Structures
1.
Amino acid sequence: MRVMETKNYQELSALAADLIGAQLLLKPRCVLGLATGSTPIGAYQRLVEGYRAGRLDFSQVRTVNLDEYCGLSGEHPQSYRYFMEQHLFSQVNILRENTHLPNGAAPDPEEESRRYEALVESMGGVDLQLLGIGRNGHIGFNEPGDSFPPVVHPVELTESTILANSRLFDRVEDVPTKAVTMGIGTILKARKILLLAGADKRAILEEALTGKVTPWVPASVLQLHGDVTVITCREG
Ligand code: GLP
C-alpha cells in the first residue's frame, strides 16, 4: 500500500486527477470505478480541466459507480447519477452508454444488484477503483457489520450515514434509508484502488490502514489488496 500525504485538499485533488489521468493515457478503453461524496469533487474538477485543455480524452472510457440510493431516479438532484452528470459526465466527452450506476428506481433492489454485479463482470472488471471513506469506515455503502459482503447487494443505511449525508438534503427524513452498493468482494476485484481521504477523515483512515482487518471497519479490508494508493492531506 502506498500512502501519499499532500499539504491540502487542492493538492490531494490534483494528485488524484494525475493518477486517474495516467490510467486514461495508459489504457484509453479502461474501466474506471467511480465514487461520489464531497471528497472526489476536486479530482473530478481537475479531470474536467484536463479534458478542456486537450490533455485527456474520455471517448473510450467506461465507468461503473460504487453505489446508488434506492428510491431516487437519475433525475433526482440527490441521486448519485445526477451527481456524476453534474461533476463529470456532462463536462467531458464520455459516451452516456458507457457510464453505469445501479438503477435507484429499479422495483426490485435484489434483482438490480444481480444485474449490476453481472454488468461489472461482463466489462472485464475494474482497472482503477476510486474510493472515499465514510466516518464509520464504510466504503461504497458497505456499512460496519459482522461480515464482508462479497457481491453487489441492497443495504439499509446506518443512522450515522443517514445523518452524515443529510447535509445534502433539505430534511433528514428525505435521505433514502436504502442503497444498492458494490460488495467488498466486488471492490477487491479491481486491479488498482485509489482511496481519497481528506483531513477530516484522518482518525478513521489511521484505524483502517493500521488497525485490525475487520468488517466492523470495512475499509480495513484494503490492507489485503495488492495495489492500493491512498491520498490524504494535512489540512482542509
Ligand atoms: C457516501 C458514499 C461513499 C463515500 C462517503 C464519504 O456515503 N456512499 O462512497 O465515500 O459518502 O463521503 P464524503 O467524501 O462526502 O465524506
2.
Amino acid sequence: MEKVILVRYEEIFLKGLNRNIFENRLIKNIKQQLRGFGSVKVTRSQSRIYIESSDAAFDETEAMLRLKKVFGIASVSLVTKVVSDYETIKAATLEHVGSLLKTKPYKTFKVEAKRADKHFPLNSPQICADLGGVILSGFPSSLKVNVHNPDFILYVEVREYTYIYSEIIPAAKGLPTGTGGKATLLLSGGIDSPVAGWMVAKRGVELEAVYFHSYPYTSERARDKVVKLAEILSTWCMGIKLHVVPFTEIQLAINEKCPQDYLTIIMRRYMMKIAQRIAEKNGSLGLITGEAIGQVASQTMESMLVTNAAVTLPVYRPLVGMDKNEVIEIARKIATFDTSILPYEDCCTLFVAKHPVTRPSLEKTKAYEKVLDEDALIEAALSQTECIILQG
Ligand code: ATP
Ligand code: MG
C-alpha cells in the first residue's frame, strides 16, 4: 500500500495531434515544479498522471500545493494505491476511512466505484454495495450511508492497480505553460497587470515581463515590489524574465517638450514601443497589458486606439471587459493582491496632467511626438535595461 498523487487533466484539449505535445509538456512542467522534492516518478496512464516517490521524506501535501499551480492540471488527489485484489482493496479501504475519520468527525458517506479493468470479478455497483457494507461493519457506531448528501465520498477506481481516495482538490486548469508561444507583459506595480499576465499564462503562454522604472521619482522599493510580483507570477508560469527599463529620461523629455494633456498617452506609446523591441528580441508574439475599457483616462477606446497604433504586435488585454472587483478577486486567488496594494508610487502618476485628454487624436499625438528624438531615447533606455531572472 502506498500513497500516490493522482493528477487529472481535461480531455477536451487532448483530441487530435496535439495530445502528445500537451501531455509531454505537462509532465515536463510537473517535474520542474517538483524539483527539490527528491526523486519522483511521474507516469502517464489512461489520460491520467501518477506521481510517486520512494523517498520517505517526500511531502505529498506540499507537493500537491505546488501542483495546484501547474497550468493544465484540472485537479489532484492523494490516493492509496494497492494491487487490484479484492481482499487487499477491502483492507486498504478500512485503513483509508480510519485515517480520514481521525481528521474530521464525518458521519455519513457513500462509495463511488469505477471498474476500468473488466477482468475484475465485481462490477461497479457491486463494488459500491459491498465496500459500503465493509465500511459500515468496520465503523458501526460512527458512520451511516447517505447517497444524496454524504459528508465524504470514497472513490475506488479499479484499474491495473486500484486507487482509493476521498478528496478531489481543484487546480489551476488552463493549458500547460509552453504550449502556446510567448508574450511580453507590461508589468506595473498595480493590481491589474499581474492578473492580466496570469490570465494569458493560463492559456499555456510563456511570459516575459517589462517594468518601466522612473528612478528617483519612483523609489527602489517600487522596483522591489514589481520584482516581488514577478516572482509570485513566476511560480505559476515556470519562471519569468523581468526587464527593468530606466524610464526617467523619457518621461522628463516628454514632460518638457509635449503638451500637458498628451503626456500620459505619449508616455504609454513609448512604453509600448520599448516593450515591442524587447518582445521581438525574445520571440514574443504579442504584448499584454492590464487595461480595462474606461477604467482611467488612458484606457478609453480612443486612447487604446492611439496606444495600439504605436506598435505592430497584437496587444492582449484580458481584463478589457472586467470590473475592478472581478480583477481583485483573481488577484487574491493568485496571491498578488497583498503585494499590489503596498503603497509605493507608480510612474504613471508622475508628471500627470490635471486634465489628461480622454479622446486623444492619433494625428495630434504623432505631431506632438515629432519634437522628441525617439530613436535616441529608446536606444538609451534599452542599452541600460537590466534583466532579472526569476526561476519560479
Ligand atoms: P495596473 O494596476 O496594472 O498598474 P492601472 O489600472 O494602474 O494598471 P495604468 O497605470 O494606466 O493602469 O496602466 C495600464 C497598463 O499599462 C498596466 O496594466 C500595465 O500593463 C501598463 N503599465 C503601466 N505602468 C507601467 C510600468 N511602470 N511598467 C510597465 N507597465 C506599465
Ligand atoms: Mg498602474
